[in-house]
Design a protein that fits this description.
The chain is mainly alpha-helical. Among the domains are: 72 residues, 434 Repressor (Amino-terminal Domain) (Orthogonal Bundle), CATH 1.10.260.40; 146 residues, 3-Layer(aba) Sandwich (Rossmann fold); 71 residues; 85 residues, Arc Repressor Mutant, subunit A (Orthogonal Bundle); 129 residues, Tetratricopeptide repeat domain (Serine Threonine Protein Phosphatase 5, Tetratricopeptide repeat), CATH 1.25.40.10. It is built from 37 helices and nine strands. The strands form three sheets. A five-stranded parallel sheet has the order 2-3-4-1-5, with helices on both faces. It has a two-stranded antiparallel ribbon with strand order 6-7. A two-stranded antiparallel ribbon has the order 8-9. A hairpin with a 2-residue loop joins β6 and β7.
């Protein structure tokens, strides 16, 4: 029978009409759309009157509707979701106050102080937001009960994550029903409800807990209550549009609070020392997860906390282990997830391949299968943050809590194949390493970009590139390791090569030996002697500077020369002989000047200006090491003149070399006891070192200038330079550079004190 013509079609009736017009059975539409037969049947029968947007999108695709028809269908669904449900559907039954509540003392004290009333007598409304399962409601209840106020406590669940959250009228009406003497007749309009609400609370001040709010509009009418009353709102959203409220954002419990909470749940005979801390870490210090785990252990006397932790570690799906009765972490997250638009839920699943630390919108966008603007991704991330599915951090950074990360990964695994996930990880990896190569190119601007660097971040200047390399190390370094494991050897050697000049600026990173070691192995896998010689040279530097192993550095330098000779490449023969000369000198062995002369010859044949200047400077260093400061000064001046005769040094690498030449000339002048000239030369070195961000060259130059000031009898300026050089220096680091600076700067400080 056709529906009466005097009423509009329900969504289910529209869907049935569209399906039959397309000559599709339920099964055929299910196959086309990916929506189950049961779900389609529920919609058509009216069991589901307002399906989620992603379901409507899928059905529209399956029905092959044109854009106008699809948008009309979506508008109809949105309108139906906005229609208030009939009857008293709001829950006015407050959750029980947790008897074994622990932790959150700082946050509760802050909430109590806000609710206690300002000097003028008005209490400040409090909005508590945070991740699902983080304990917003229990914390709010605990704080309200600690107020020790005589005000009646009103509770209302606003159904913020349901398809149709409470309307403002339903919110105020639901509260009025809980106040004795407010009248039995329900208000017909929001204005009527607000007027009665003000009158009732003026006579009887109350404390209100609005739980699970969806939007500011639900809450605003309640805030019109008498100033003597108090309101606490909990929401996964930030509700940033509310004015004049105090905000509390809850994160995971602190480790000691987590242990205290678990100890209050798990009997003493079911746990050993250390078990609770381990279990807390596995549960991400999230209260809901820990309560679930603790309840499961306490309910099974034969199970010990350590055994349960072991089961969680080995479980294929850790979230599904954390279920006890009607408490479920997965269910809590699902409520937020199922309310997402398809594009946002796709991003949420996609970012689960980001395995570490915080990330920004550019990295999030790189995980997606299809190009999406960063602006759109930022909006989607903000929506996820508002729902508590991700955490916002400073500087437009975001973070996936461990348990949410597992949840998102599980949803991703449900939605795509293993091969698709591997492809997604590969896209992110390639994007990160391409960005890394682009960033490294700023420190060797004559570098030719590889095909991989056609993607990734574009940097406006060296400072931005430097900042990105340091900030995103938590992502690109694991990506490089993964590329090596995946056999993507060309990516590894290109990225490592792009970093070799930057490594001088970040010598204390701590992973250069491993990084250049990976590049050597990848070069060998590519059977490319030139690349292997190149990366062996970088590994020599890392071994000497980072590991302080000069003997191993010498072995690697000799091996690098052998490989370079096989390649026949003059540039690599120049660099490997340069490193060999350095290592021979560092080990106190003969042959250093000869190796540096050989490097100078090969650099000349290769036309490498930077290499030529570096080899010439090395000859001066050999003279300085032998105590011949005049010869050292002559060699460094000759190297400087050679650089000046070349084309203007516009690259970062050549600029850095010029700075080191000024430093070495200052060192020689100080050795010749010509402090005034040494100070002038150091000033030039410092200017360049500060321009290129060479922190260690700044410190070395300050050390030379402090020495020159001491020689000139100026203890005050010497001390200022030493203090500046020590500023930010890790005095506990065992790297070659830090150790050398520490061991030489501290005596200079004592000498300066004696002069002053």
């Amino acid at each position: 029978m056709s529906p009466p013509v005097n009423r509009p079609l329900t969504f289910g009736e529209q869907l049935r009409r569209l399906r039959t017009s397309a000559d599709l059975t339920l099964e055929a539409l299910a196959e086309r759309s990916g929506v189950s037969v049961r779900t389609i049947g529920d919609v058509e029968r009216g069991v589901s009157v307002a399906p989620h947007r992603r379901t409507v999108d899928a059905l529209a695709r399956g029905l092959r509707l044109d854009p106008a028809e699809r948008e009309s269908l979506l508008r109809d669904v949105r309108a139906r979701r906005a229609v208030p449900a009939q009857g008293p559907r709001a829950s006015a039954v407050a959750p029980h106050r947790v008897g074994d509540f622990s932790g959150r003392e700082r946050e509760i004290a802050e909430i109590v102080s806000f609710l206690g009333g300002a000097p003028a007598g008005r209490t400040a409304p409090v909005v508590i937001s945070g991740l699902a399962g983080i304990g917003k409601t229990t914390t709010a209840l605990e704080a309200i009960h600690r107020l020790e106020s005589s005000r009646p406590i009103l509770f209302l669940d606003l159904d913020g994550l349901s398809p149709a959250p409470l309307t403002p009228l339903q919110v105020v009406s639901g509260l009025l029903r809980q106040v004795p003497g407010a009248g039995d007749a329900a208000p017909r309009t929001l204005d009527d409800a607000v007027r009665r609400w003000r009158a009732v609370t003026a006579e009887t001040p109350v404390t209100v807990l609005l739980d699970n709010a969806d939007a500011e509009a639900q809450v605003r009418p309640v805030l019109t209550l008498d100033p003597q009353s108090a309101v606490v709102v909990t929401s996964r959203r930030a509700l940033a549009g509310l004015e004049g409220v105090r905000r509390i954002t809850l994160g995971p419990l602190r480790p000691e609070e987590s242990v205290e909470m678990l100890a209050s749940i798990i009997p003493a005979d079911q746990r050993d020392a250390g078990d609770l801390r381990d279990l807390a870490e596995l549960a991400g210090n999230v209260p809901l997860a820990m309560r679930i785990a603790g309840n499961r252990i306490a309910a099974t006397p034969a199970v010990r906390a350590g055994d349960f932790s072991a089961r969680i570690r080995s479980a294929e799906n850790r979230l599904r282990m954390l279920v006890a009765g009607d408490l479920a972490v997965e269910a809590a997250f699902t409520l937020s997830y199922e309310d997402l638009a398809p594009s946002v839920s796709a991003l949420f699943r996609s970012i689960s391949v980001i395995d570490a630390g915080t990330f920004d919108a550019r990295i999030a966008a790189a995980t997606l299968a299809s190009p999406v603007s960063v602006v759109d991704v930022e909006g989607w991330l903000d929506e996820l943050t508002d729902l508590g599915l991700i955490e916002a951090r400073g500087g437009n950074r975001y973070h996936l809590h461990d348990l949410v990360h597992l949840f998102a990964g599980g949803r991703r695994a449900d939605a795509e194949s293993v091969a698709e996930t591997q492809a997604r990880r590969a896209r992110l990896r390639h994007w990160l390493l391409a960005s890394l190569e682009r960033a490294g190119a700023w420190f060797e601007s004559d570098r030719s970009a590889t095909d991989a660097a056609a993607t990734g971040v574009t940097f406006p200047d060296a400072a931005a590139a430097d900042a990105w390399i340091r900030l995103e190390e938590q992502h690109w370094w694991p990506a490089m390791q993964a590329a090596a494991r995946a056999g993507e050897h060309a990516l590894v050697v290109d990225a490592a090569d792009a970093l070799h000049w930057f490594s001088e600026l970040w010598a204390d990173w701590g992973h250069w030996v491993e990084l250049f070691g990976l590049a050597v192995e990848s070069s060998r896998a590519l059977q490319d002697d030139r690349l292997e010689a190149m990366h062996l040279g970088y590994l020599v530097w890392a071994t000497a500077v980072e590991s302080r192993d000069r003997v191993e550095g010498l072995r690697l330098a000799r091996l690098a020369v052998e490989v370079a000779e096989r390649s026949g490449d003059h540039q690599q023969l120049g660099w490997t002989n340069y490193y060999l000369g350095w290592m021979l000198q560092q080990n106190g062995l003969d042959g250093g000047p000869a190796a540096s002369h050989a490097a100078l010859l090969h650099f000349g044949l290769a036309g490498d200006a930077v290499g030529t200047a570096s080899a010439a400077a090395a000859l001066g260093n050999h003279a300085h090491a032998s105590g011949d400061h005049q010869l050292a000064l002559d060699e460094h001046r000759a190297a400087y003149d050679r650089v000046q005769a070349e084309a203007p040094f516009t690259t970062h690498a050549m600029t850095y070399v010029v700075g080191t030449l000024h430093y070495f000339m200052a060192l020689a002048l100080a050795g010749l006891e010509r402090p005034v000239e040494a100070i002038e030369e150091v000033d030039r070195a410092l200017a360049i070192a500060e321009e290129v961000g060479a922190v260690n060259l700044v410190r070395l130059s300050l050390r030379v200038r402090a020495t020159a000031y001491l020689a000139a009898g100026d203890g005050r300026r010497a001390r200022a330079d030493v203090e500046r050089a020590l500023d930010g220096l890790d005095l506990t680091s065992s790297t070659e550079m830090n150790t050398a600076l520490r061991d030489t700067l501290l005596p200079l400080l004592e000498a300066a004190d004696r002069l002053t």
